Amino acid sequence: MSDHPFENTYDLSNEQLIKLEEAEEEMLRNNLGKSEEILLEMLEDDDECIPVLNNLAHLYGRHFSDFEKAVELYDKVLSLEPDNAWARDARRRYQRYVGRD
Question: Are the C-beta atoms of residues 50 and 80 closer than 8 Å to each other?
Answer without folding.
Answer: yes
